[in-house]
Amino acid sequence: MLAPEEIAQLRQKYYNATVSYLRKPHEELMILRVRPDFPIPPYQPGQYTTLGLGFWEPRVPEAQPEELTDDQRRKVVRRAYSISSSIWRDGELLRPEDENELEFYIVLVKRANGKPPALTPRLFCLQEGDRLICGPKITGHYTLEGVRPDDRVLFLATGTGEAPHNRMILELIRNGHRGPIGAAVCVRYRRDLAYLDVHRRLEQYHPRYRYITLTTRDPDVRQKKYIQDILRSGELEERLGWSLDPACTHVFLCGNPAMIGPPKKGESGSWVFPQPTGAVELLVQRGFKIHHPKDPGNIHFEAYW
């Protein structure tokens, strides 16, 4: 074990940000705001940066056991997280230009195949005022590039995959987006909808915004449905109140790869889709095109793992 004096020196050496806000909807879910010591660089909604902590920091007791040497304890672990947003601040839409902190939406991973989870069991021991690492660079291709002011925009997510969508939705509404905006998120339990009140309030504020939730394990769920199911059946469009027309619609997908169904290019150059069928394949079948920075389209996706 490292001496307290050495731990203090390591924190001084590596840490460059402070926890400014922390809320846990339950013991395995967290909304975390971080105030860096440096000015936040300009960035596009949907992008990500890194958070990190030293291996010397404590972990939640129920996490998968971890065995480390003292040399290993002197190292740090970093992971990428999309920047989220609570959209509202003091009763008004958040002004991104006034931001001096970054928000993240994090789920606790207690166990994993192979190496024990290193970062989230430590992040969930943090308290407001604690120090940590925040990456100085914000990057990523999962952005609103190509969305026109009158386009229909749909965000599909599972769990904490809605983090980047929160920031993107704020951007659209603050900039006066004229087309309808919809968001759907699928979680296990209603308690996992940490931003539910935020989005219900946004529906009242912006008449062309719809927020759709699906839960799969709550006791009152009569029929388990996933995003792929309501996309395939037409229920999604019915609940949105508008059609998914590929001529004027962009779809953003983030979260569980089983929902997204991210394809790979085959030897012939055509897309090869995984099974079971994910949302990307369903959209391609309807005439949508997968976006690439060098070959723009209207299906944008980012898999979390």
Beta-strand residue fraction = 25-35%
The number of helical elements comes to 9
Backbone CA Rg: 20 Å
Helix content: 10-25%
Task: Compute the average pLDDT.
Answer: 96
- Helix-strand pattern: HEEEHEEEEHEEHEHEHHEHEEHE
Count of structural domains: 2
Total number of strands: 15
- Strand order, main sheet: write it out: 4-3-8-1-2-7
What's the quick description here?
Helices cover 21% and strands 27% of the residues.
Describe the structure.
The protein has about 300 residues and is α/β, with parallel strands linked by helices. The chain folds into two domains: about 5-135, Translation factors (Elongation Factor Tu (Ef-tu), domain 3); about 150-305, Rossmann fold (3-Layer(aba) Sandwich). It has nine helices and 15 strands. It starts with a helix and ends with a strand. The longest helix is centred in the middle third of the chain and has 12 residues, at about 165-175. The relative contact order is 0.14. It is globular. The strands form four sheets. The protein has a six-stranded antiparallel sheet. The chain has a five-stranded parallel sheet with strand order 11-10-9-12-15, sandwiched between helices. The chain has a two-stranded antiparallel sheet with strand order 5-6.
